[in-house]
Amino acid sequence: MPSSRGIKAAYWSSDDEFPASLINTSFFTHIYYAFLLPKPSTYKLHITFLDRIKIKEFMIAPCFKNSHVKTLLAIGGANNDPIVFSKMVSNKKTHAIFINSSIKSSRGKPHLLLTSTVYYASKFMVSGEPRSYPNNAICKFVDWVSPMCFDFHGSWNNVTGLNSALYDPKRNVSTSYGIRSWIQAGVPPQKLVMGLPLYGRTWKLQDPSINGIGAPTVGVGSRNGTMAYFEILEFNNKTSPTVVYDTQFGSYYSYSGVSWIGYDDMDSVSLKIQFTRSQGLGGYFLWALGMDKDWIISRKASTSSAWGRRQ
């Protein structure tokens, strides 16, 4: 379980151009290597030739020397096949094969951490049916769970929306609602590590004069609907847009002509860290390293925390 000093985690994506050697570990307590997958034919954890190269790069990076940062392997991700996972967990034998191969891949560690990245809320809908997580098992077996408090709005919407609003006065699609739903479901706050995005969502406005939250759109905007934080700053510097910090939602958006972006910046990140403290959460995580700009958000989140030094 996370200690009172708090988790300050981040994911390093192995298919990103951002090299592990440039990670500034001073802002983090834990860093995830993303992603590994089980092999469909055997259900063993599959470490490809490229993964072996990348994991070695990750583990021997100079920034990890004399560092207390702990490293974890993230299994799954957007490219995983849910059918493979479903088949694997439905049978005790294949489940054991996967678990044992995962432990073998992490050999040499004195204590293994078991965490799970989950939906922003404790309940959700699948094919119109209400579902929920096994909260009793989470409380008993998992060191912590990490609600993904982002992707609230995106290309699937035909109006503008905030990627990671802390609050939403009209809907239950917000970080505050999601986190409180987990607590109400019985998961201890200290076992919740809240997700923060280092990217925003973009749209093309239908009418430049109608440019607030919920404004009609005619499709996605720059970078095919998603922009890393460093790209957002570049866009804002080049286009001199109108930048709005909406305190009601606890998030930012900017617009210039028909271009509209919803994202987090320093003030909204600071507000979210205050929220994690007020709720007694175990900490936060960032997705993903390489999207920040000169460690602006990473530094702000770390220095806004009252958890102190690493655990």
From TrEMBL:
One Pfam family it belongs to: Glyco_hydro_18
GO molecular function, one term: chitin binding
GO annotation terms (biological process): carbohydrate metabolic process; chitin catabolic process
InterPro entries for this protein: Chitinase_II/V-like_cat, Chitinase_insertion_sf, GH, Glyco_hydro18_cat, Glycosyl_Hydrlase_18
Domain of life per record: Eukaryota
Keyword Hydrolase: yes
Record-stated family: Belongs to the glycosyl hydrolase 18 family. Chitinase class V subfamily.
Name of protein: GH18 domain-containing protein
Source organism of this protein record: Quercus rubra
Biological classification of the source: Eukaryota, Viridiplantae, Streptophyta, Embryophyta, Tracheophyta
